[in-house]
């Protein structure tokens, strides 16, 4: 089943780039010194944003990603997520494997699939769009597939435009702490 929102009972998200608690501002800073050879695309960073949708108002989300895609289409990377309720209670956290990355200008769209057996949610995938704001704030859009009878799609799906029929468009959220680097070489 494809879910566009995050329910407090079912799922979760944050990037804690390897830490079990919310990253500090120092941990969430953008990576420095990324060098990309021609023909490669990269998205990297950790960011925090806050949902304001019905049922999830004030939920704090952390997403961390480090992924590279070669010109031929092979992609490698890791995605970390953490979802906290407004009171700080952790609803869910974990990691996923990045299966697809597409970069156009300052925009990265990627898919990350949670390995089966991690957590209680089956067939769990994230579909994320990161807009690198340069000197301004970055923005993020996310959607999830979870608890379906089939594994979720592994190709890149833009959560603003490529969702299945009947799934409402996803909003853009400003990244409040941290940020991302998007680069195409």
UniProtKB/TrEMBL annotation:
Keywords: Signal. It comes from the Bacteria. Residues 1-28 form the signal peptide. This is Secreted protein.
